Amino acid sequence: MTTKQRIIQVGSYAGSPSANDRLAEGYDVFELWKHEDRKAALAQHGKGVTALVTSASYGATAELMDALPDLKAICSWGVGYETIDVAAAKARGIQVSNTPDVLTDCVADLAWGLLIAAARRIGQGERFVRDGKWGQIHGSIPLGMRVSGKKLGIVGLGRIGEAIARRGLGFDMEVRYHNRRQRDDVDYGYEATLTGLAEWADFLVVATVGGAQTRHLVGREALEALGPKGIIVNIARGPVIDEAAMTEALQSGKLGFAALDVFEHEPKVPEALRSGDQTVVLPHIGSATYETRLAMEDLMLANLKAFFDTGRVITPAE
Length: 318
What we know:
By secondary structure, the protein is an alpha/beta fold.
């Protein structure tokens, strides 16, 4: 009988089709989330554990790593890893892996769904029909904005940002982007400042990484530069946008529309964003298709297996 490798699972993978079951089938899983006193549980069960699985929702703090003296690998489900203390992991020689690429297309698709829904007032139109107002009151919903041929600005031209940009070309758009540094391997226009990109764009899509380095990157100045007809789309991380400044800009008419899949204090969403006709709001479902969630699950498990088989993960976090 083969002895299963022991791992620690920080939290349940409720959003994945079968990750919990597959982990339990292949490994001796210590389910940390079921223990109220995590410190005591780790002290009792953490010795000898070399691998930990988590996600951006649960993260992995330096304190958690310190409680696991033998830890060598952290395998995360999802592309974002801002809640994992990567610096602390590197200092300890702990490998950190994520699941890039496999969710790129679905997140890019959703960004475009949000953009079109905002520009064409799809959410407002659906509510109008569902509420029985069509034909019952004079007039209809306000006119929307044409999408084709407009100017698309992208904040963060990584894997997902580039996939969003390619889709923009299919809508005959001019595409520009803002990054920490200009890329020499793409033909899209580069804007050295975020405010400059916002002033130029009709649509501004936020696709940058999360974390402390990008918190409130999109603030009042950029939001107001986008203007009273501008539309901002966020499929990155909620804290990248200053949510209070965005809400104020929408209410004052200095910003036209916001289409959001992520929020600063999830799952809490301000009433002003939930109830207004200037917003489209979704519950962080960028990767929420069966195909993509299964691919994320597969890659997380492949990273874990590779670590135990070879000592190296397949997709180390960049």
